[in-house]
């Protein structure tokens, strides 16, 4: 029996993304950190809702999260 290699979690990625039970990856939307006075109420409200990763971004990020 060969040794199994343990994969380390990328902590920076783990803090920014969340994996759901079904394997989807959720993230926060950008542009909500500062300079909020120039953004409309509607825009800020819509930025509150998170997003879901798809495509190439999903393939890149999934490897860095804990299994």
Give a topology summary.
Elements: H1 11-16, E1 17-19, E2 25-27, H2 41-48, E3 51-52, H3 55-62
Antiparallel strand pairs: 1-2, 2-3
Compact summary:
With 67 residues, this protein is an alpha+beta fold. The chain is 33% helix and 12% strand.
Order of helices and strands: HEEHEH
- The total domain count is 1
CATH class: Few Secondary Structures
Q: Looking across the biggest beta sheet, what order are the strands in?
A: 1-2-3
Q: What shape does the CA trace take?
A: elongated
Q: Approximately how much beta-strand content do the residues carry?
A: 5-15%
Can you describe this structure?
With 67 residues, this protein is α+β, with helices and mostly antiparallel strands. It has helices at residues 11-16, 41-48, 55-62, and strands spanning 17-19, 25-27, 51-52. It has a 3-stranded antiparallel beta sheet. The protein is elongated and about 60 Å long. The two termini are 22 Å apart.
């Amino acid at each position: 029996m060969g040794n199994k290699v343990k994969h380390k979690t990328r902590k920076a990625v783990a803090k920014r993304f969340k994996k759901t039970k079904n394997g989807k990856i959720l993230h926060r939307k950008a542009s909500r950190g500062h300079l909020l006075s120039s953004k409309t109420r509607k825009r800020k409200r819509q930025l509150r809702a998170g997003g879901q990763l798809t495509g190439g971004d999903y393939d890149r990020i999934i490897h860095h999260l804990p299994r």
